[in-house]
Every structure is written in structure tokens, then in C-alpha cells.
């Protein structure tokens, strides 16, 4: 969502004017140097040609703006081989015998595969042997994408960080976020599920035919997809991005401790900038919000994987000082393989700890860090966990484990290395860290819940309820038919109880 690239959603009609030499892929972006493609505009149109050129370049193909001697493959749509040769003659260009004339279906298959695929008879354009003018055979279509079975549940789809449809998913993420700001749960789910299913597809949506048989794509969603294919952008997304309320809520909620109610209040009071809010003496801020403003620049900048690993060392050292047998696991986006995030989450559990030792661990860790001057903010939430309480029916319910939301002072590596500091003279960076302490026998459920993604967890709980007549949350799995709690020592066992294939954390980026 935050990585939305405005260029992806820029006006499509301007692209043909931008397809000059400056838009050609730089040498390091070209993966397949033996192929030089030229996409024919005839019968395809300027807009679609520009769309396909951009997609092909993103996949590492070399695509020429103009036809030249270096071109090895001409790609056309709704043209026979004879049509292409006639076009070449009109352009006073002599076709080489080595030049491949191919239907656009070949290029689409290449982009889905992420590499050149074998050219078959169904891809090669037919050149008529006579002058009768009889139509050439239509190239065979590639197998319908509906044959690729896609589940409506994210927990039955493998979703890596390799998103082939970012052009569309960025758009739906914006629309979903706007609905969340407006507390429109129904519309939020429509767009969130659409984005989620598109992220799981191993191919790029090129035409509306590609959406056939894919779940979670209703009429509203398909109309937006079609508009992006045809125009390069969605007018609805453009309107949201330019909407003053959306822009304000996006800005306000970027402050640690500011939620929808506070954002609504500030917006109604006429605030549009953070500087105005901070300078207003009539406003009262919570401890969390004060910390959010104080360390704002650090907290809105992304946490890198290296920073997350450095924090992990500090957390483990502190925890092991009091509970040497404790397991400390990074959860959230970093466990799913992300390179950057907004905070670092940890699940802590100990097989040998008593209930009292579990309750005392986080306060001891906080006290240790406070003495060292590393603790910038801390909010400890005590456990309300009950051993035999049924899992929550709400798919977004928070768990009842003891947890601590904090801001930690992470010293910059340059302080120890003797190198000049890179952060404007400040030798440290404020990092958001969440620590969760859970009983050892509940570790599998807590780990599964805290790993995410949000949509994966929602669908996992929804699947348990609607397909298995079970109840799942971060604490337990309950079989309503047998009226028993199902034990699990690992995430794999939870998936097995639900009758699901196990999905690795790096494939849960739904």
C-alpha cells in the first residue's frame, strides 16, 4: 500500500508520447539479450501496445520503440503473417528470413513464465501462399486461465512477494484503505480480497479474458481492472488519491498512536498538516501520540532487514539474561521474507518457565533497557488469557497474551565502526518493536497468528469456521462438532487439523 508507485497509475494516454529513447530499458534491466522485440501497433492500438511494451520491459525483455535491423521478433495481434509482411512492404522494410513473426499469445506466455518460451505452430503467424485473399487460420488460443484452480481462501493459495499484478493490486490496496478509513467494512473486504487473489497469481493479467474463473473478482472489481487495462489507470483510484479526506487520514494515521477516531476528530476540526496539529495548544495527546510525534521521522522511515536483525540480537540477549531456555522468534513481515517493514515483532515463549516467571519477563527486560538508556517508549499490556476460553468468533480479534509495544533506541553501526554517522548527526534510530509473551503450549497458535499476513489470517479463521466447523484464533483451535480443543505443537499440525496443505511463511504474503 505504502509502496504505491504513482507512475504505475499515471495517465495511460500520455504513455505513447513518452515511449521515446529515454524510456528504453537500461542495459542492466535486460535479461534476454538474444531477443529483440518489436510490437506492431496495427490492429492493436497505441494504448494496448504501450501497455504490453511496459510489461515486457519489466520482465527483462528488450523491446524496441522503432523497427530496426536488430529486431529478431515481431509480435502482432489479430494479424496474419501476410498482414505483417504487407505492413513491412508499405514501410519499405525488407523482411529478413531470420525474422520471427509471432502472435501476441507468445509474448503473453513469455511474461507469465518470466522468460522466453518455446515458439510453437500456434504462436507463429501464417503467411498465405496465394493471392486469393482468403483469411488465414486464426492462431490457437493459449489454455484458458480458468483451468488454473484458484481458491477463494488465501490460506489455500501460495502468495510470495513476487507480485505479477502490482499495477492492479496497488489500485485495490488504495481503494481498500480508503474504505477502511471510512469504516466501510463491506467494500473494504471486496477490494482487499481482490488484491489478495491477484497477488497470488503466477501470471500477469493482460486482458479481461485472463480474469475468467478467478474468484473474488466481482463486477465492480472487473470494471476497474478493465479500465486500468484500457487506460493505464483507474479514475476511481485517481479520485481517492486526490481526495483531501484520504490524504489527511493517510497522514494522521502515520503517527504512532493515532487511529481512525482521532483522525476523524482532527479532520473535522480543520487540520490538514501535522505541524498545525503539533502547534495547537488546545489539543491533548496521549503518551503514545507524544512519542509518535517526537520520533516521527524515524518511525515513518522503513525498518531494514539489517536493522531488524540488530534488534533481534538485543531482544535475545535481554530475554536470555532472565530465561535462558526461552525461544525468541521474529514474526510479522520479516518472518514472511520481507526486506523492509514498519516495526519488528517477536514472540517469546519458554518451556520451563512458571506462570510467574512468564509474567515478570517483559517488565524485567523493559527495566534492563531503561537502565541502559535504550527504552524511548513502553506500553505494557498485561495478560487476560484464559486457558479454557473458546476462540473468538471475530476474524480480526486481538489476542489476550501479555505484550509490550515499545520504541527502542537502536545505535547506528557507525558509532562502533568509527565511520561518520549517516543520520544527520544522530547516532541512533528509533525503532518500533512489539514483544509478545505466550504460554509454551500455545506457541504454535500464537506464532501462526502473529506471522500474518492480515488477509491470510482472516481467511484462515474464516475457512476454519465455514469449511471445517472449527474456531481458530491466536490461542487455540476448537472443534465445534466434537466439542474439544485440538492440541498442536507446530504450525504444521494446525494446518493438518484444518485439512489444509502446509504453507510456508514466505508464501503467506496475501
Describe what this molecule looks like in 3D.
The chain has 20 helices and 14 strands. With 510 residues, the chain is an alpha/beta fold. It has 4 domains: 6-142, Rossmann fold (3-Layer(aba) Sandwich), CATH 3.40.50.10190; 146-241, DNA polymerase beta, N-terminal domain-like (DNA polymerase, domain 1), CATH 1.10.150.110; 244-294, Orthogonal Bundle (DNA polymerase, domain 1), CATH 1.10.150; 303-496, Beta Polymerase, domain 2, CATH 3.30.460. The strands form 4 sheets. A 5-stranded mixed β-sheet has the order 6-8-11-10-9, with helices on both faces. Strands 2-1-3-4 form a 4-stranded parallel β-sheet. A 3-stranded antiparallel β-sheet has the order 12-13-14. α5 (166-181) packs across α8. It is globular and about 85 Å long. It has helices at residues 15-18, 46-58, 81-90, 104-113, 166-181, 185-200, 219-231, 235-241, 244-252, 260-268, 274-279, 287-294, 296-300, 305-322, 332-335, 355-372, 414-417, 443-451, 454-468, 491-497; strands spanning 32-39, 61-63, 73-76, 100-103, 303-304, 327-330, 340-341, 344-349, 375-381, 402-411, 428-437, 470-472, 477-479, 484-485.
Amino acid at each position: 500500500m505504502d509502496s504505491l508507485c504513482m507512475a504505475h497509475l499515471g495517465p495511460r494516454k500520455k504513455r505513447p508520447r513518452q515511449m521515446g529513447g529515454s524510456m528504453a530499458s537500461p542495459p542492466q534491466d535486460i535479461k534476454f539479450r538474444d531477443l529483440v522485440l518489436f510490437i506492431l501497433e496495427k490492429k492493436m492500438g497505441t494504448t494496448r501496445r504501450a501497455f504490453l511494451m511496459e510489461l515486457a520491459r519489466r520482465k527483462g525483455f528488450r523491446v524496441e520503440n522503432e523497427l530496426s535491423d536488430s529486431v529478431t521478433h515481431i509480435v502482432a495481434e489479430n494479424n496474419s503473417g501476410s498482414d505483417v509482411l504487407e505492413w513491412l512492404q508499405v514501410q519499405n522494410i525488407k523482411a529478413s528470413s531470420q525474422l520471427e513473426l509471432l502472435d501476441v499469445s507468445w509474448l503473453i506466455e513469455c511474461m507469465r513464465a518470466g522468460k522466453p518460451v518455446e515458439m510453437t505452430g500456434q504462436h507463429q503467424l501464417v503467411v498465405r501462399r496465394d493471392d486469393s485473399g482468403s483469411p488465414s487460420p486464426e492462431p490457437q488460443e493459449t489454455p484458458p486461465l480458468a483451468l488454473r484452480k484458484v481458491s477463494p481462501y488465501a490460506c489455500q493459495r501460495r502468495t510470495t512477494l513476487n507480485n505479477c499484478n502490482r499495477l492492479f493490486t496497488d489500485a485495490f490496496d488504495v481503494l481498500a484503505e480508503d474504505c477502511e478509513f471510512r469504516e466501510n467494512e463491506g467494500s473494504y473486504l471486496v477490494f482487499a480480497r481482490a488484491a489478495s487473489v491477484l497477488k497470488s497469481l503466477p501470471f500477469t493479467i493482460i486482458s479481461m479474458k485472463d480474469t475468467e474463473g478467478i474468484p473474488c473478482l466481482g463486477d465492480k472489481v472487473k470494471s476497474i481492472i478493465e479500465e486500468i487495462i484500457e487506460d493505464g489507470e483507474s479514475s476511481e483510484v485517481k479520485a481517492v488519491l486526490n481526495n483531501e479526506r484520504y490524504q489527511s487520514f493517510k497522514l494522521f494515521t502515520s503517527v504512532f498512536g493515532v487511529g481512525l477516531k482521532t483522525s476523524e476528530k482532527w479532520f473535522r476540526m480543520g487540520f490538514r498538516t501535522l505541524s498545525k496539529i503539533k502547534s495547537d495548544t488546545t489539543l491533548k495527546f496521549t503518551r503514545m501520540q507524544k512519542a509518535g510525534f517526537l520520533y516521527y521521522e524515524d518511525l515513518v522511515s522503513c525498518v531494514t532487514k539489517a536493522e531488524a536483525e540488530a534488534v533481534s540480537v538485543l531482544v535475545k540477549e535481554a530475554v536470555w539474561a532472565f530465561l535462558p531456555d526461552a525461544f525468541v522468534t521474529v514474526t510479522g513481515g520479516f518472518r514472511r521474507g520481507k526486506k523492509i517493514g514498519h516495526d519488528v515483532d517477536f514472540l517469546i515463549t519458554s518451556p520451563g518457565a512458571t506462570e510467574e516467571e512468564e509474567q515478570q519477563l517483559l517488565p524485567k527486560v523493559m527495566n534492563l533497557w531503561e537502565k541502559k538508556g535504550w527504552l524511548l517508549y513502553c506500553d505494557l499490556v498485561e495478560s487476560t488469557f484464559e486457558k479454557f476460553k473458546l476462540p473468538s468468533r471475530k476474524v480480526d480479534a486481538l489476542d489476550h497474551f501479555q505484550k509490550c509495544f515499545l520504541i527502542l533506541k537502536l545505535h547506528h553501526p557507525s558509532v562502533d565502526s568509527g565511520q561518520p554517522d549517516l543520520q544527520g548527526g544522530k547516532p541512533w534510530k528509533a525503532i518500533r518493536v512489539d514483544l509478545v509473551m505466550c504460554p509454551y503450549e500455545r506457541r504454535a497458535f500464537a506464532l501462526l497468528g502473529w506471522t500474518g499476513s492480515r488477509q491470510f489470517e482472516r481467511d484462515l479463521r474464516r475457512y476454519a469456521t465455514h469449511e471445517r466447523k472449527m474456531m481458530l484464533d491466536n490461542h487455540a483451535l476448537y472443534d465445534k462438532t466434537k466439542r474439544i480443543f485440538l492440541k498442536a505443537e507446530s504450525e504444521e499440525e494446525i494446518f493438518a487439523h484444518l485439512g489444509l496443505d502446509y504453507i510456508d511463511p514466505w508464501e503467506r504474503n496475501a
